[in-house]
Every structure is written in C-alpha cells, then in structure tokens.
C-alpha cells in the first residue's frame, strides 16, 4: 500500500502531455494553447476616432468657449469603415464617427457635445489638445507582439482576440480520449430491467460525466463480465484511447479479476492506496496507455477519480494547474477516524460571516452515492489524525465551482 502523495507522484510521473491539433477558435474554449500567438498586424490598423464629433487641427480651436466659439468649415463626413479623401487644412473640420480613420491633417477630435452644427459650418465650444480622442494605430496590439503565450487556457477573451487577429483556427493540446469500462456480473445498463440482485451500472455514467467535466472525451465501453476473457477483450476494445479507466474488480473478492488481468498483462504499477474511500486503486499501463483500475463502490470510484484521474487528464490536456481549489474551514462536528489512511469525507461547505464552515453529509459509506449528491466539497483528514473536534480547522477540497463564487463575496 502506498500513500496518496506517492501514488499521485507516480501517476503524474507516468503521464505525458498530449500533442497538438488545430481547431476552430470556438472549439478551443477551455483548452490549452499549444503555440504562441503573435500578431501579424496593428490593431487598430489606423489611427481612428474615439468619439462621435469633428476631426480638426487642435490649433484652430485655441481659446474656444461657449461665448467665443471657433467656427470651422465642415469639408467631409466620415463614418467607421470609410476613409476620407480630404486633407484637413487650416479652418477645416471633418464630421467623424467613432472608429472612423482620422483624415490627413487632423490632429484631434472634438466630441459632438462640445459643438453645434450650422449648415456647412460647425461651432466648436472647447479647445482641443493635440491627440485628443484619437486612438493611435496599434493601441491595442502592435504588429509582431506576442499576444497570447502558449500554455494559456483559452477563455472568451482569448477567443475574441483570435478573431480580432483574423484567426479562424488555433493550435491547442488534444483532448484525451478516455475509455471507461465497468466490470461486474451484477451490472445492468440503462434501459435494462434489473433482475433481483442486479444493480444499475451507474459508475460508467458518473465517470463519463467526470471525464467530460475535465474537458476530455469519454468513450463508454459498457460492461465487462467478471471473466478473464471478457476483461481481455474489452481491454482490446480500448485500443486507441489515451487513457483507460475501469471500475470494480480491484478488491480482494473471488471475482475481482481486474487486478489479476492487469498483472498478467504486465500492466500493474501499484495497487492499493492509503485512503478512504478508494483504497483498492490499481494503476499501471497497457502497451503504453495509462490504466486506472478504480474501485467499484459508487463513492470510491468518484473520489478516486477526483484525486488521481482528474489531475492526470488535466496534465495530458496541457494544463499547469491540476488540482481543485482547497480552503480552510471550521468543522461543525466531532469526527473520528483510523490512523494511517487519508480520509475524504463528503461535506457541505458554507461561507458565513467571513469564514468557511464544513459539516459531513451524514453516513459516509462508500456505497452511499447520495453523499456525493449532497456534497459540494471533500473534507481531507490527514493520515496521522485520529479525531477532530467541532471548531477545529480542516482542509476542504471544493468540488463545485459555482459554490466558490455564489457564496463568497468578491469584495474583500
Ligand atoms: P467490486 O469492487 O467489483 O466488488 O465492487 C464493489 C461494489 O461496487 C459492489 O457492491 C458492486 O456491486 C458495486 N459496483 C461495482 N461496479 C459498479 C457500477 N458500475 N455501478 C454501480 N455500482 C457498482
Ligand atoms: Mg465486481
């Protein structure tokens, strides 16, 4: 049996970041940029107006006021997307809209609120300064500038910037294809009718959802029965996946054959981790494809996924930050545990009067999937601890992103 930290170290040491692919920019959302994005252009391409108003020579407005306006001749009208052919000379102005390129000869824009139109004249009531309300070319992005460095996660802002650069595709890390295999003679898939003693194959679905939540692609391979032959043939069907995740069959029961088959295939790196739930986890690789043999209990499978498979998938996908956010919370109850195992207790965390508080969801059996449904976090109790008192500080891994922002005020 190895510690949680050692297990994670071995797993991440065996996992490699996947290669790159080109995808349409909207498909890149939430993925990791694989190449530096450098600008081949100035944005904006030309100096343009920041206001609706008049482009003019600032000198022509010197000393202008309500009482003593500068009177200029309007020689053209230019809107965004058009370029004026006129050159502004002394005493001239061009009516201009926000975003329109500044005509030759103009060195300032006076906004429309400070003017009054009178036929082909305009009265200007305020003195302009050189450069006033002109957005210079390249104000946002300069030609040759590194705009988005590789390794950055693509968010809506990056998608917008790529569009501004006229890039319809972008190079990102591949999304891992994760084969998911449930094992067990007692399992029935969705739509089936469970005979007495049979249970629904829920693990395939919680796992597929967890895989999808990480941004990876779940491939559900269905159910393998508890025979060597079926396991072997289902592993064969997983060929082409970047990662294989199984549930069940890794404990010490007579029909727990996953770990035996992993051993036969030379695919076993370690078995059993000092944690609860999730102790019987097996990890290895089949022909270079990493393989997680997760325990079968519905809570164990999800908690093990959170601690080990999620960081592995995120590493494969090119992410640098592999772990959930943890916070310190005050315990609302007394807790007992055995020494030597790290505990992951399903918990409800709340933010109240400037502090986090945590309480377990109740019964913590590894078959009680409802504990996961109720939980928004996992209380993590260290190996050496045997009891905790109400009011003690504990570490909580937050499972629910919406909770972080909904419950914690953004202001300090
Ligand atoms: P095992 O490790 O295979 O003995 O499974 C441990 C427990 O988890 C047993 O009670 C199984 O019935 C249950 N279990 C195994 N696989 C699944 C699954 N795919 N969905 C729901 N429960 C499962
Ligand atoms: Mg089983």
Structural write-up:
The chain is of the alpha/beta class and 412 residues long. The protein is built from 8 helices and 28 strands. The protein has helices spanning 4-14, 156-164, 203-213, 228-237, 258-264, 298-316, 370-374, 401-407; strands at 20-24, 37-38, 48-49, 53-56, 70-78, 92-96, 108-111, 115-118, 121-124, 134-135, 146-148, 169-173, 177-183, 187-188, 199-200, 217-224, 243-247, 268-271, 275-276, 282-286, 289-294, 326-331, 335-336, 342-352, 355-360, 377-381, 387-388, 393-398. The strands form 8 sheets. It has a 6-stranded mixed β-sheet with strand order 7-4-6-5-9-8, with no helix packed on it. It has a 6-stranded mixed β-sheet with strand order 16-13-17-21-20-18, with helices on both faces. The chain has a 5-stranded mixed β-barrel with strand order 22-25-24-26-28. The longest helix has 19 residues, at 298-316. It starts with a helix and ends in a 5-residue tail after the last helix. The model has no long low-confidence stretch (mean pLDDT 96). The structure holds adenosine monophosphate and magnesium ion. Adenosine monophosphate (AMP) binds next to helix 3. Adenosine monophosphate binds at residues 182, 184, 186-187, 199, 201-204, 247-249, 251, 253, 256, 295-298.
What's the short version?
By secondary structure, this protein is α/β, with parallel strands linked by helices. It has helices at residues 4-14, 156-164, 203-213, 228-237, 258-264, 298-316, 370-374, 401-407, and strands at residues 20-24, 37-38, 48-49, 53-56, 70-78, 92-96, 108-111, 115-118, 121-124, 134-135, 146-148, 169-173, 177-183, 187-188, 199-200, 217-224, 243-247, 268-271, 275-276, 282-286, 289-294, 326-331, 335-336, 342-352, 355-360, 377-381, 387-388, 393-398.
């Amino acid at each position: 049996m190895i510690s949680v930290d050692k297990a994670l170290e071995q797993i991440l040491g065996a996992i490699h970041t996947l290669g790159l692919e080109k995808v349409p920019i909207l498909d890149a959302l939430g993925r990791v940029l694989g190449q530096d994005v450098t600008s081949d252009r100035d944005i904006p391409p030309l100096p343009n107006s920041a206001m609706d108003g008049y482009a003019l020579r600032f000198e022509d407005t010197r000393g202008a006021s309500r009482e003593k306006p500068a009177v200029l001749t309007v020689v053209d009208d230019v809107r965004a997307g058009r370029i004026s052919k006129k050159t502004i000379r002394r005493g001239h102005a061009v009516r201009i809209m926000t975003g329109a390129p500044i005509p030759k000869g103009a060195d300032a824009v006076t906004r429309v609120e400070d003017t009054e139109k009178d036929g082909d004249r305009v009265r200007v009531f305020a003195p302009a300064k050189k450069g006033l309300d002109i957005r210079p070319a390249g104000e946002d992005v300069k030609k040759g500038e590194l705009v988005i460095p590789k390794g950055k996660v693509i968010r809506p802002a990056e998608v917008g910037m790529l569009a501004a650069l006229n890039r319809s595709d972008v190079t990102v890390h591949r999304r891992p294809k994760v084969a998911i295999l449930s094992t067990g003679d007692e399992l029935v898939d969705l739509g089936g009718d469970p005979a007495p003693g049979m249970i629904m194959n829920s693990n395939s679905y919680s796992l597929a959802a967890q895989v999808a939540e990480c941004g990876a692609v779940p491939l559900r391979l269905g159910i393998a029965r508890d025979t060597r032959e079926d396991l072997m043939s289902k592993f064969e069907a997983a060929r082409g996946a970047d990662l294989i995740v199984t549930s069940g069959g890794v404990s010490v029961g007579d029909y727990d054959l996953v770990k035996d088959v992993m051993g036969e295939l030379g695919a076993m790196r370690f078995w059993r981790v000092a944690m609860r739930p999730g102790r019987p986890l097996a990890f290895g690789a089949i022909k270079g494809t990493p393989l997680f043999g997760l325990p079968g209990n519905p809570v164990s499978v999800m908690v093990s996924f959170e601690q080990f498979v999620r960081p592995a998938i995120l590493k494969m996908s090119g992410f640098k930050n592999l772990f959930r956010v943890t916070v310190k919370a005050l315990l609302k109850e007394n807790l007992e545990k055995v020494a030597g195992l790290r505990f992951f207790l399903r918990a409800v965390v709340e933010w109240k009067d400037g502090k986090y508080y945590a309480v377990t969801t109740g019964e913590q059996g590894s078959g009680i999937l409802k504990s996961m449904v109720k939980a928004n976090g996992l209380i993590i109790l260290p190996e050496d601890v045997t009891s905790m008192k109400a009011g003690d500080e504990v570490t909580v891994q937050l499972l629910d992103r919406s909770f972080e922002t909904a419950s914690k005020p953004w202001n300090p």
